[in-house]
Amino acid sequence: MNVHLSMQVTVLGEALMDCLQQADGQLKPLQGGSPFNLARACALQGVQTHYLNPLSNDAFGDALKASLERDGVGLPQLTSKLPTSLAVVQVVNGQPSYGFYREGIADRDYAVQAILSQLTDMTPGVLHTGSLLLIPPEHLKVLAVVQGAKALGWTISMDINMRPSVAPDLPAYVHAVKLLSQEADWLKASDEDLAVLGFASINLANAGALSTHFPNASRIALTCGGDGAWLQVDKHAAQASVPKVDVTDTVGAGDTFWGNCLADWTTTHAPGGPAPERVAYTLHRAMQAAAINCTRLGCQPPNAAELNNALR
Hints:
With about 300 residues, the chain is of the alpha/beta class. It has helices at about 35-45, 60-70, 110-120, 140-150, 170-180, 190-195, 210-215, 255-265, 280-295, 305-310; strands at about 10, 15-20, 25-30, 50, 55, 75, 80, 85-90, 95-100, 125-130, 155-160, 185-190, 220-225, 230-235, 235-240.
């Protein structure tokens, strides 16, 4: 698919409250949800960004809405009387683990046709999805949206972001993710995602093998935590190590990373030529953004000024 500059990013996914366990056992609510985080990361880089899924009319939903609005994300047309989804987050040695409460919640309260109607009324750009919406049976709605969007001319971005502890049927979940990933034009996965999918032998040294598993994706990223990341754009690849920062936690680092990749590809601010010729620059910029996020509690992506200053 031919990709033009200055495209908008539109996000289909979850917005939830991460209830972060404190040292004394109490829970501190922080806003989260991988696609929600990514939408904010994109918008903070000056990208025209929209969020599609309904938000709850409860207090948490109002807070999520306010954050999207503050960061410049276009708000969803749909609202829901169902509650906001919750996640309980424990962080050990800087690495988060999650427990989710996602039955009868607002961000799943949508109809496929309602989403496609919105996409039909918009100029085609990048439609991003992934994470919890890929878990069966929700994946069937996502598949219908993605296929409908592709027919309308949208470029599909996907962050696999596996959450095996949430899935009642892990083999069905793996099958669903493999099915949906074939629809992605741009794809991100972590080494942990690949292990769940059965591709544990793939690492930074042989990341090019991902093209055999995701042949329809022209842009692929592999993140490997503290070991660094790899990015390929139309057969042009680069690898980078993690910038040295004082880590507070890593919540939202991957979302910030991929959000900044999308931001770089959909705007004209980056130096250099077309996307394939600036793959190393895109990777460097995204890694720095993720590193800044890791110095903060919860997902707090940097804005363009903060990121540009750090890069200087």
